[in-house]
Design brief:
The complex is a heterodimer of chains A (313) and B (356). Chain A is mainly α. Chain A contains 13 helices and no strands. Chain A is 70% helix and 0% strand. In chain A, helix 2 packs parallel to helix 7, helix 3 (43-59) packs across helix 10 (193-219) and helix 3 (43-59) crosses helix 11. Chain B has 356 residues and is an all-alpha fold. Chain B has a two-stranded antiparallel sheet. The longest helix of chain B has 30 residues, at 111-140. Chain B is globular and about 75 Å long. The chains are: A mainly alpha (313), B mainly alpha (356). At the A-B interface, helix 5, helix 11 and helix 13 of A face helix 7, helix 12 and helix 14 of B.
């Protein structure tokens, strides 16, 4: 068994980035919500909604990018729902988030079944294809790994930069961080705590939905029940691992993608000796381990989980 | 707009909220029914008949409610201590595996011995399933929401592995399922020719015990104290970590018993589709019940009615049975919002520093 060979193979790195893409979207989304002080356990359901709405739009005849926009809009809508429950109403973020996940998952599944009642094998769309950037794609090794990904992977990488820039380089970002740490101070500055938090949760949820859309519009070309399979929850673990920083979020998602791609390749080599399920468990076990390692040191946004009411002290 | 607390909430209002929430959620089902193009009143009628139309359908509902009482209790007790056990689905499967491990021929004996043994094995397996995340929380500060959720996926894959390995039934023609539970270890049926089984009795007894333990014992007092304010509870000399570990074990054991009840009372053998998400629905049950154990029984009957009624309506009218999941999830959100309006009033006042 030649493990080094795996790392030298460019297909390994292509796969790593592909596996990381939905997680990049998801972790960035969770990061935006939590930086503003709102835990969004709706993530798992919002992934399902993004996957279904994006796919269904294209299946109904919309161009791919319109499908992407539709998915983001649907995610934002569920984010608005979660935000209304948790921000002005100040309800339990845990329970509301789980409620959103159950509601979003069942709504997406109900819509899919109602619109396509009799399909036995899931219908397919023409998904995003790997981009072929002239010249750049021909660079040995780096070319295929970076430049032959689909446009949605590129969008994910761009969003890392955008979220980093907004948080660290704009007045909005300063306000956003403050609202997750010390909402009273934000209020004293004359800014609206409610608007900032609701906006952050909507934007974050839209990003989460893009993670779902990537699954049906790029990684696969069809919608299956149960296809999200805990990816949202993994993002909730990864965002703690990433200490709520966009750069580290990218790193965490990439490490995760590499590990997952590695175990798939290891599986083909060691499959005869070790039951395949051991490898299937690996991503979830890895997430728990990552969480345990950083848990003691994690500096949660100080106002995370704490509702804030106007006029209360 | 100003939000102010209402002061004391009467018991009547507290009891009315989940009822109203459940009715609102059922009412909102008209929207997806309309979207699916079904005649709405007829659909409601079919749902009602599906539950109350015959003795058989009613016992089917009770059969469906049985695991929900267990998982609802599991969530209610844990949430009471503010321990977020979202892993009841996995603990259910662990319980089922525990039952199958000892109940399919490893040992044999009379039913008076075998049935308690199978239940203890399942409860212990379930307890271990939540003890893990609780230790990670108290020892390392790892958020139990995430760890218990992720464990659900790990455990389900583990079940697959066991069903293709040590627990596989050699007579199953290659299907991944366990050997059947021995007759001596199976929970007896309550009514001939109906599927309803003694698991329901066990669930009801568990609910009564939980109610008494929570409201009448020092252990229950500790749970509530830790849940309301862990720091204050510690200050008062309560060992909060030990209380949390204890609750985790009981909560996991209850979820494990849901698995025992399904496998030893209903299915007879273990497959990977034993539970259609009873662990997650248990959270809804617990919230509808306001985390009260006796309330869990009533809420479980409601959620089971929605599932059985919608299934029956789905077969009769061709509307997707995902409608049931929609109604159940909307019930959760409704009861959450209802709780808000019971606790607070919203006043639309002028700008002049209202509420200060």
């Amino acid at each position: 068994m030649d493990m080094l060979q795996i790392f030298l193979n460019e297909s390994f790195w292509v796969a790593s980035l592909r596996i990381a893409t939905p997680l990049i979207f998801g972790v960035l989304g969770a990061l935006l919500c939590e930086r503003a002080g709102v835990l969004n356990l709706g993530i798992e359901g919002i992934f399902v909604v993004g996957a279904m709405v994006g796919w269904m739009s294209v299946y109904a005849g919309a161009p791919l990018w319109l499908g992407v926009i539709a998915a983001a809009a649907a995610g934002g809508l569920f984010g608005l729902f979660h935000a209304i429950l948790t921000v002005p109403l100040g309800l339990s973020q845990h329970v509301s988030g789980l409620g959103i996940t159950l509601f979003a998952t069942s709504a997406a599944s109900f819509l899919y079944r109602t619109i396509l009642p009799d399909v036995s094998s899931p219908p397919r769309i023409t998904a995003f294809q790997p981009m072929d950037v002239p010249f750049l794609s021909d660079i040995p090794f780096l070319g295929p790994v970076v430049f032959q990904q689909t446009a949605l992977t590129w969008l994910a990488l761009i969003m890392v930069g955008v979220v980093w820039w907004v948080i660290n380089r704009t007045p909005l970002g300063v306000a956003l961080q403050a609202v997750g740490d010390n909402p009273d101070a934000v209020n004293a500055q004359g800014l609206s705590v409610y608007k900032l938090r609701i906006g952050a949760v909507m934007a974050g949820s839209a990003l989460m939905a893009l993670g779902g859309a990537f699954l049906t519009m790029s990684a696969f070309d069809a919608f299956f029940f149960g296809m999200v399979n805990g990816r949202g929850w993994i993002c909730i673990a990864l965002v703690i691992f990433a200490s709520w920083r966009p750069g580290k979020a990218l790193l965490g998602a990439l490490l995760f993608g590499m590990f997952d791609a590695f175990q798939v390749r290891l599986q083909t080599e060691a499959g005869a000796v070790v039951p395949s399920q051991i490898f299937l468990m690996a991503p979830y076990v890895l997430s728990i381990i990552a969480l345990v390692i950083v848990a003691r040191k994690a500096e949660y946004p100080r106002a995370l989980l704490h509702p804030w009411f106007k006029g209360h002290r | 707009m100003v939000i102010e607390p209402r002061g004391n909430i009467s018991r009547g209002v507290q009891m009315a909220i989940p009822v109203i929430a459940a009715l609102v959620a059922l009412g909102l089902a008209a929207l997806p029914l309309g979207f699916a193009g079904a005649p709405i009143l007829e659909a409601y009628k079919q749902m009602f008949i599906g539950v109350f139309g015959s003795v058989f359908s009613f016992t089917e509902m009770l059969t469906r409610a049985t695991p929900l009482i267990f998982t609802g209790l599991a969530a209610a007790l844990a949430f009471k201590a503010r321990l977020w056990n979202i892993g009841a689905e996995g603990q259910l499967y662990l319980g089922a595996m525990g039952a199958v491990a000892v109940g399919t021929g490893l040992i044999d004996g009379p039913a008076v011995l075998m049935i308690p043994l199978v239940m203890i094995a399942g409860a212990a397996a379930g307890a271990a399933g939540m003890l893990g995340p609780a230790i990670l929380k108290t020892r390392f500060g790892a958020d139990e929401v995430v760890t218990s959720l992720l464990l659900n996926f790990i455990i389900l894959i583990f079940v697959q592995m066991m069903l293709e390995g040590p627990l596989k039934d050699p007579m199953s023609m290659g299907w991944p399922q366990s050997e059947p539970i021995l007759d001596n270890a199976a929970l007896p049926q309550l009514i001939p020719r109906m599927r309803i089984h003694a698991g329901l009795i066990v669930a009801l007894v568990a609910a009564v015990i939980a109610q008494i333990a929570l409201t009448k014992t020092t252990w229950g007092f500790k749970i509530r104290a830790v849940g309301e304010n862990a720091a204050a509870a510690r200050h008062a000399g309560i060992n909060a970590n030990r209380t949390l570990l204890g609750v985790a074990c009981i909560s996991g054991a209850l979820a494990g018993l849901a698995g025992v009840s399904e496998v030893a009372g209903l299915k007879g053998y273990l497959t990977t589709d034993l539970s259609p998400g009873y662990g997650y629905s248990g959270i809804v049950v617990a919230m509808l019940a306001g985390l009260s154990p006796m309330g869990v029984v009533i809420a479980a009957l409601y959620v089971a009615s929605v599932f059985v009624g919608a299934d029956s309506m789905s077969r009769a009218m061709g509307v997707s049975s995902f409608l049931a999941d929609l109604v159940v999830s909307m019930s959760l959100i409704s009861v959450l919002v209802g709780g808000f309006f019971a606790r607070y009033r919203i006043r639309f006042a002028g700008k002049a520093g209202a509420g200060r």
